[in-house]
Amino acid sequence: MKKSDSIWQNVHVFHLLCMAGLLIIPVGTFASSHTHGGITSMAAAVQDGKKISGNVTDASGEPLIGATVMVKGNTIATVTDMDGNFQLEVPNGATLVISYVGYNQQEFKVGNQRSYNFKLNEDSNTLNELVVIGYGQVKKKDLTGSVTAINRDDLNKGVQNTAQEALVGKIAGVNVITNSGAPGAGSTIRIRSGASLSASNDPLIVIDGVPVDNSTIEGGGNVLGGINPNDIETFTVLKDASATAIYGSRASNGVIVITTKKGSEGGIKVNYNGNVSVGVIAKRLTPLTADEFRRFVPTVTGVPSGVSFGTANTDWQDEIFRTAIGTEHNVSLSGNVMKKAPYRVSVGYTNQSGIIRTNHYSRYTFDGGINPTFFDNHLTVGLKLKASYEDNAMVSGDVVNNALRYDPTRPVMTGARGSNTPGLGYFIWMNGGSPMAIQTDNPVAQLELQKFNNKLSRAIGNATVNYKMHGFEDLQLNANLGFDILKSIYTKDVSDKAGPMYTSNMKDGTGLDYDGTQNKRNTLLDIYANYRHVFDKKHDFSAMAGYGWQHFWKKYDDTTLSPTGKELFSPSHYESEYYLLSLYGRVNYTYDEKYMLTATLRSDASSRFAKDNRWGYFPSVALAWRVSSEDFLKDNRVLSNLKLRLSYGETGQQDILNDYPYMTTFTISYPEASYRFGDKWYRTYRPNAYDTDIKWETTATWNVGFDYGFLDNRIYGTVDLYKRHTTDLLNTINVISGTNFSSILTTNIGEMNNKGIEFSINTQPIRTKDLTWDLGLNYTWNTSKITKLNTIDSESNFVQTGAISGTGKYVQVFMVNKRPYTFYLAKQAYDNNGKPLEGKYVQPDGSISSTETRYATDKSALPKAYLGFNTHVNYKNWYLGLNAHGAFGAYVYNYIRADQYLQQVYSDQGSFSNILPSTRDLGFDVQQLYSDYFLEKGDFFRLDNITLGYTFKKLWNDKSDLRLAFAIQNVCTLTGYKGIDPELANGIDRDVYPRPRTFSLSVNLNF
To answer: DSSP strand E in 215-340: where?
Structure first.
């Protein structure tokens, strides 16, 4: 590098970082120290050694200024001067390590010479690293679509019980929301906000080449719960249609490709990773205390004079919450059999308590794989198996809300535990000598007398074969035979006379012994060929073509008995299956490493549709231009990468609940629809609506973007703009009674637009021998609008969604010209002091009356923008990392507050219910569920994780090291929302299990 170029480079680092808002002076090419004759050195005099000198240049012979020259395994080091020269005193027999940002590191053993010259080659690993895409791999620099890959070193640190948690805030356009603070809970993942309404908005997830079934698991299990985060090598997210169209019928909502770790090329390596954690409740609401309750209740209208309160002072939240302890242990062994068969085997154990008493989660995992090669590396066989067992002791979903509402003057127990009286010794509301059928359940009794358990076993595996043709190595033949087998056993056990059995089940105190078993099986076969050849050194051509077959099968059985074995409801059973057949192909062409073309076509047939609508065709095309490789830029020392991308493609959607939507089917009715014959209750069956013309939902996507890099990719990132249009929207709508077997029908009707901008920047402001500092930021803006919803659209023609309490109570709608999940509420009226007027609403003409006229608020549960931020500093053996994310523009309906009102404190049967101080101060006598007063901004910024670690290197040999780390998760949340947590997948705050704040100490040992 020339002197002027180096000075120009550092000036540009400063300016570029200032433009990025970082305002950091780069010191990566400078080090402070004492100086010998113009040469900077951090080395002291060395006894029994010698003084050497030398020069460091790039491949073209230009001097590299500020290159680091250090003695391996020692602190002796220096940096090169303005001419690339250095001087250093080194011990006899020393090995030098020469490094420079953006160049491959070089090692050299010092001999008898006194002077040395070194040439470093540019390190293009960032651009040349392979990225996993559908049915193949491609170099990052050759990508034409919107694809982001992050490896295990970039994932969130700290205790990660589930694979999704490691992805929070990491990728632009990807929003990951943990559904609950319970250990092992699943997450809602949205890529570019999703493209559907009534059909699934979940992305397709592919694990080591196996597209998994991510439909609902009985008992609410996590679809990725059995994947140990410690086994994951990379997440690759395919976002635009150019990248996803190769997956065709299931790719409208994006694709996440998970690749797990493989065997090592060297000798045997052992890794142990473990941690111990302590979780505490981060935030909770505070209802009236017992003394406040006693003073306030008599002032409420309708409460009889002289009502009798209890004598206890019970904090029901203290009774249900606890400090949660967790441990995790993972051991892996990897190696290479005779240098021909890399292998890796790992086992893991997770034992995590929840912050709610009786909630406990444990998991056992196994991951094993081997990849032997034969016939001079022409034949490669891959065998992979992941197995897991999860045991989840769950809690009732409404226990947190009940702890807020329960009378604080009542005791937890009124008799001996296990006494044979209503409530089994726990306090229960009685009306005379009988328990009340309508009452809030004692939250402690809910935890201790109800046993909800989900046991889930899963195995995902595949065998792959890759054959590189002898004599025609450009052609590779591939086969992938895989499976995903799952069994879930969900049980509910409640004793006779337990309090909750008077408000549910038979409502007469009869206990419950419920067993529900779900079996799911997904098998697949993919056969495809890859061809690649470079013609005349400039024409890089590759093609892929294949055939796919996949079969999904599921079966469900349940029984509902009393504790004595009496059948309470007739057993239910269903069995279902569907098939996918696919033909797919892709062509890639690159000219002179500058101009790139990718074209794909996939044709899918689904047994979910009738014969005439069975096949769907999903094409895509993408163009890219690597501007930085042009002659006028290729020698530019500032701009290291600039690639422009343009793509268009179509993807499909067929992920609906019913596997036979085009034919008449029957579903077992709810228990309430049972009929009695003799002394036994029988469940009835009801016919389902059907549509013989139902077909694929199709999403067309335009994407324009560019990838950039400066200063040998010391600063790099991407920018994407996209627009999606979904047609033949699978939507559940109301139909005229008598025209079908139901008044609602899922059919292809409707259209929706979606557009957005994504931006990411990653930089390393500081890079010296001892200190590096990395920063990353991603930002996404996205909005959607429904453009068609029914045959004839009008303001009164919409679909209700967002269910709250009771039957037919909804607070959101799908409506034309509105964003999905727009809140549909009544406009609250206020007095001159800004206080809401009870039962008064603003009408469309501006007048105020008691008519509860509801309207589309233009406020949606979907965020308009979200961001992720991460930074980490390495100083010698120390590590300090921080991760954060936020979302903006979403609204939250605070059902917890909306459901409370003053007269709730006392029922005509004589029971009491607690309220929040805000409910007391608001003064609404009766419930105002549909008032938009309870709709709040859900903006937040959360500091997810802080990790401090130290690595002990070379414990007993060069390959052994030990890393200790202390981490805090869910550190703090900045928000104006009045509830516990604004980060909700559906925008409705109801019965949410709080996210804990977790402190952990982890150990990572390698040898």
So the answer is: 232-238, 255-260, 269-281, 324-337
DSSP 8-state secondary structure symbol assigned to residue 78:
E
Could you tell me how far CA 736 lies from the centroid of its own chain?
40
| DSSP H stretches of helix in 342-498 | 399-405, 443-449
Instruction: Dihedral sign for Cα 282, 283, 287, 288, please.
Output: positive
Given the candidates 1.20.1440, 2.60.40, 2.40.170, 2.40.160, the CATH classification of the domain at 124-276+321-406+442-736+751-761+1001-1005 is 2.40.170
* DSSP string across 361-403: EEEEEEEEEE--EETTTTEEEEEEEEEEEEEEEE--TTHHHHH
Q: Which tokens hold the place of 819? A: 């964003």
Do the beta carbons of residue 232 and residue 155 sit within 8 Å? yes
- Compute the Cα dihedral for 407, 411, 415, 419 and give only its sign: positive
For the stretch 790-824, pLDDT in tens is 877 777 788 889 999 766 799 999 999 999 999 99
Residue 322, φ and ψ in degrees, nearest 5 = -155, 170
Give residue limits of the domains in the chain.
3-123, 124-276+321-406+442-736+751-761+1001-1005
Return the sign of the alpha-carbon dihedral for residues 286, 290, 292, 297.
positive
Cα–Cα distance measured from residue 640 to residue 101, given in angstroms and rounded to the nearest whole number:
12
- pLDDT by residue (tens digit) across 700-748? 999 999 999 998 889 999 999 999 999 998 877 777 666 676 767 788 8
- Residues 394/225, Cβ–Cβ less than 8 Å: no
Question: Chain centroid to CA 148: how far?
Answer: 14
Is 151:234 a contact under the CB 8 Å cutoff? yes
- CATH number for the region 3-123 comes to 2.60.40.1120
C-beta separation of 690 from 665 below 8 A? yes
Partner residues linked to 468 by β-bridges: 476
Q: What is the tens place of the pLDDT at every residue in 625-673? A: 999 999 998 888 899 899 999 999 999 988 877 888 888 887 776 665 6
Query: Contact at 8 Å (CB) between 412 and 314?
Result: yes
